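User: My advisor, Dr. K., asked me to get a structural model of this assembly before our group meeting. I'm new to this, so sorry if the format is off. These are the inputs:
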Amino acid sequence: EAQVTQNPRYLITVTGKKLTVTCSQNMNHEYMSWYRQDPGLGLRQIYYSMNVEVTDKGDVPEGYKVSRKEKRNFPLILESPSPNQTSLYFCASSWRGHNQPQHFGDGTRLSIL
Amino acid sequence: TQLLEQSPQFLSIQEGENLTVYCNSSSVFSSLQWYRQEPGEGPVLLVTVVTGGEVKKLKRLTFQFGDARKDSSLHITAAQPGDTGLYLCAGLQTHGANSKLTFGKGITLSVRP
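Assistant: The format is fine. Below is the predicted structure of the whole assembly, which you can bring to the meeting.
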């Protein structure tokens, strides 16, 4: 089954404790991205990657890092999480870029205390 | 200023009613995507409209792209409880080799049995 898999689905942690949210897709998509979804603000793009070893900042990249060492994986790293990063995070992928249908994972709900 | 304004923000209707919701902007888009998101899941693509004035139908859902490619509407005929969810529009803007996909904040639809 074609899918985008995020882990963990839920995480409660404390300020400053490094965490990684993994994202994996099995569709051989070149493009992957991360969004956060907040009430009243909608979906905002954090980072995206057009292909392996190519990453770019989205609209709200501060406090986040990403890497794209393999085509299928695109982890989101919070080196020193803060409470304002409490949010619902989505990973998405598509064949080639923004102009194609985005396939989303089921989301990761992060709470930073 | 939000690039894409979706209205209304919230809508609660009775099963069997018709409804129309909107996605408006002062900017021109190359294409516009509509997604539906259900609780605990990621957004799922419903349709992409590309040509000004284009109308696409998906069962009881009718999508229209404005003639000037600045706005779009979604009409649901005889709404059912299964239509309940968050409806997101996303506009694609291209500038040469670069492109950007921007999401609206969404419309929360509740269809009561």
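One thing worth pointing out at the meeting: Chain B touches chain A through 22 residues (CB under 8 Å).

User: Perfect, thanks a lot.
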